[in-house]
Amino acid sequence: VTAHAPDLLQLRLVFVTGKGGVGKTTVAAALSSLAAEHGKRVLMCEVDAKGDLAALFESHTADFTPREVAPNIWSMSMDTEASLREYLKLHLRIPVVGRIGPLAKAFDFVATAAPGVREILTVGKFCWEVRERHYDLVVVDAPASGHIIGQLAAPQAINDLVKVGLIRGQTDWMLDILSDPAQTGLLAVTTPEEMPVSETLELVTRVKEETTVTMSGVVVNRVLPELFGRGEEEIFEQLRQPELVEVLSQRAGGDVTPVLEAARLATTMRRTRSTHLQRLQAGLPKGMPVLLLPYLFTRTHGMRTTRQVAQSLAEELGL
Amino acid sequence: VTTAGRRRTDGAPQTVSQLLSAKEIAIACGPGGVGKTTTAASIAAMAAAEHGGRVLVLTVDPAKRLADALGLKGIGNDEVRIADDVFKEAGVTPRGELWAAMLDTKQSWDDLIALHAPDATTRQQILDNPLYQNISGRFVQSHDYIAMERLYEIHAEGKYDLIVVDTPPTRNALDFLDAPQRMADFFSSRLLRWLIVPYRSRLVNVATKPFYQIADRILGTQFLADISEFFILFQSMYEGFVTRAEAVTRLLSDRRTTFMVVSTLEATPVREAEFFSAELTQRKLHLGAVVLNKVMPPYLRDSRSTKLAQSLLDRADELAEGLSDDPVVAGRVLAEVGESFLNFGIVARREAEQQAELRDAPDILVTVPFFDADIYDMGGLLQLGAQVWE
To answer: Chains A and B: how many Cβ contacts under 8 Å?
Structure first.
């Protein structure tokens, strides 16, 4: 744990990303929960609307209008069309009521034709919430690693493509917020497995090269506990000798081979994973905070998981 | 479809091996991070080894490890053959040939433009257009389309008996299915003509004027002009694109194509896999198999072993007596072993519950156990493949 880590809760906008299936949504929920516990008003937003984020607070699927799902936590789901409508109303004073059909079509067209439009309406909404100070912290359950770059780079890309017009004016202040390490950060979630680690290392490089956003750290999720302490593994190997297994089975009242086999599987899994963890730590830039979250041997998902992960996160952040 | 209806006995394939012996294209799809690429490669390796013929694995993932496992320095847009020696090192003499290629989005787009462009000047103008460079390089949805387009192109060349392809990690798992249709709709859109016309004739009619006023205010006139220039260039290729996109769509629903949904038994991937399976069925696409990766071994759920694990934890010191020179450590080890079993047992039961919920599973549902080591060579690929195969 480095000294930078607690700064995470001082940020105004945190993007949480990671390869699919590593627990990025859970970490976003846990971070929101932790920030709320520390008195922050938190807006958490899901970009790939699957309804998982709100579900981690035992709430129904969120929509574009934020809803309080827990004390001090509001949940919303990104909808670029709704974002466009809000944008038109707020900035151009064009109220779009009713005629949503043609607008949606036109929007879909422009968004497909002009790369970055969809992305900028997403990122723009977050930046706007930060600028207006409606919340203390905006936590984004961002798209998987591959897509986050496009989203974070969109304001710059639009800035390069569009020379005049309203959008051009808008991207300037967005870039100010996104580029400020005191306000905006990116948290990459991974597991200590081969592909997620490789992708995370690649992501860190690309974030630096292609965007103006600062990495806040890497969260390593599902770290397996060390099964045996010093000298214990040797004893374990001795106990696995056939004649001892037989004695043990007789005493315990049944064949203990599967139980011992499970422990062997657990130790090899742990060993494979720790090499990937080491590879991650060796590949990250010096000083990048790495937060380790334990593998959860729990029954379900939901609020219970969110609480447990938030607890571990707090410990890692020294809170 | 009822369960009874699905369990046919009329010779429907019961294994992945049987399934693929009658197919030309197998598309591995499903949520991200579940081992799609590796699964696709291992299936292709098995097909080359067991069925023979020419088998291609077309990947969208620039996985260095996969290249290593296949004995390649790297995988590029062009197909390369995997040396027989790579199989022989794994103790296998393949009956057929295994080939591999990786999708290079930018290169594939450029090739496509070259194919459809009416002349060299138009081609160059498109390649130089900043919007085109953005679309082909960065634009997320363009990956979905080009992956299917490239699959079509390779299949049409008729060089392979079987093509196994893994799908791009889409934001929405279905994007790549819709991509060809969307591309066709896009180029035949009336809005496209709306947008292009005024910059050609400078004649804006009353109906479309408000649209331009808004668009101008938001995007700026120059950008709109850039867009329309791009589409005027693209219009010359309209016919070719639409025809091609339709052909790609047809190929996906062809009898010779099958989809294999890959997932793990974590809650989120399972939900996505379920959604995906339902969508495939609804679109009348052939869902051939569901492959569940990294599944905890079933012995972890055994109630007898669970009881024994509990005994090890509760009576550790008593059970350890005389088993080792250091009875204190031995007792601690037994307690840890027991506890570890119980912990992983919870995970295994959680997974079993998830699997039971996969209601719309096809005839072929394969579970692949958790491998304790990573797959880094052909031996590993074939070991994984063998689990999926029969």
So the answer is: 211
**What's the rounded Cα separation, in Å, for the pair B307 and B305?**
5
How does B260-270 read in b/e, with b if 16+ C-beta sit within 10 Å? bbbbbbbbbbb
The tokens describing A290, both together, are: 């790495």
Mutate to test the interface with A, among B197, B328, B333 (most CBs of A within 10 A): B333
Length of chain A: 319
Complex ipTM tops 0.90: no
Cα distances (angstroms) measured from residue A30 to each of A20, A42, A130, A185? 17, 12, 20, 16
Report the C-alpha gap between A143 and B238 in whole angstroms: 32
Residue of B185, B231, B323, B377 to mutate, testing the A interface (most A Cβ within 10 Å of its Cβ): B323
Question: In chain A, positions 264-293, which contact chain B (CB-CB < 8 Å)?
Answer: 265-266, 268-269, 272
pLDDT tens for the 319 residues of chain A, in order: 444 555 899 999 999 999 877 889 899 999 999 999 999 999 999 987 666 777 788 787 678 999 999 999 999 998 887 887 787 777 766 665 555 555 566 666 566 556 567 788 889 899 999 999 999 999 999 987 667 888 888 888 777 777 666 667 778 889 999 999 999 999 999 999 888 898 899 999 999 999 999 999 999 999 999 999 888 999 999 999 999 999 999 999 999 999 999 999 999 999 999 999 999 999 999 999 999 999 999 877 778 889 999 999 999 998 8
| A146 with B131: Cβ contact below 8 A | no
pTM: 0.84
Please list every residue in chain A whose beta carbon sits closer than 8 Å to the beta carbon of residue B65.
194-195, 198
In the three-class reduction of DSSP (H, G, I as helix; E, B as strand; rest coil), residue B107 is classed as helix
Coil/strand/helix, residue B271: helix
Determine whether the interchain pair A109/B341 forms a contact, defined as Cβ–Cβ distance below 8 Å: no
Closest partner CB to A297 (pick from B211, B329, B347): B347
SS3 (DSSP) at A14: strand
The residue of A86, A194, A235 whose CB has the most chain B CBs within 10 angstroms, and thus the best one to mutate to test that interface, is: A235
Could you tell me if residue B14 is left (phi over 0), alpha (psi between -120 and 50 degrees) or otherwise beta?
alpha
